């Protein structure tokens, strides 16, 4: 049986935060899917497949990520196909433009590298995974 995947949408400028998310994913029993290696496919096709295959779709909401075209596309696609979404933001007062304003409850955690958010995020991912359990059995 394949380990369920967590797809992480993020801006490349926020790559230093992926360490915490990877730790949280492992703690929640998930493997982290952040990029694709399907060079023969168009980017949108490869990303759509990874998002369709993931158990949970997470997005790091930072001032930079919300304006990145691919992050916006990934979020819109995940919402369109009904994926459980785990939005993560540092700033509770962050104003979310569309499509981010349609996201479910945002987990506000201090986004710092070096494992500081991993434990709380793992707890949130386990909750999101349980809510989307039916998606795992398809």
Automatic annotation (TrEMBL):
The record's annotation in Pfam families points to: TIR_2
What's this protein's name? Answer: TIR domain-containing protein
> Whose protein is this, by species?
Pseudosporangium ferrugineum
TIR domain mapped to chain residues:
7-92
Signal peptide residue numbers: none
Name the InterPro entries for this protein.
TIR_dom, Toll_tir_struct_dom_sf
- Output the lineage of the source organism: Bacteria, Bacillati, Actinomycetota, Actinomycetes, Micromonosporales
Q: Which SUPFAM superfamilies match?
A: Toll/Interleukin receptor TIR domain (SSF52200)
For biological process, the GO terms are: signal transduction
């Amino acid at each position: 049986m394949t380990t369920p995947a967590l797809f992480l949408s993020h801006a490349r400028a926020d790559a230093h935060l992926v360490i915490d998310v990877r730790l949280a994913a492992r703690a929640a029993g998930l493997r982290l899917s952040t990029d694709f290696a399907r060079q023969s496919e168009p980017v949108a096709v490869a990303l759509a497949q990874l998002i369709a295959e993931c158990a949970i779709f997470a997005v790091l909401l930072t001032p930079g990520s919300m304006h990145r075209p691919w992050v916006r596309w990934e979020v819109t696609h995940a919402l369109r196909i009904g994926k459980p979404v785990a939005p993560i933001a540092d700033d509770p007062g962050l104003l979310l433009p569309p499509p981010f304003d349609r996201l479910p409850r945002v987990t506000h955690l201090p986004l710092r590298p070096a494992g500081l958010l991993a434990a709380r995020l793992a707890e949130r991912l386990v909750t999101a995974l349980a809510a989307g359990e039916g998606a795992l059995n398809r």
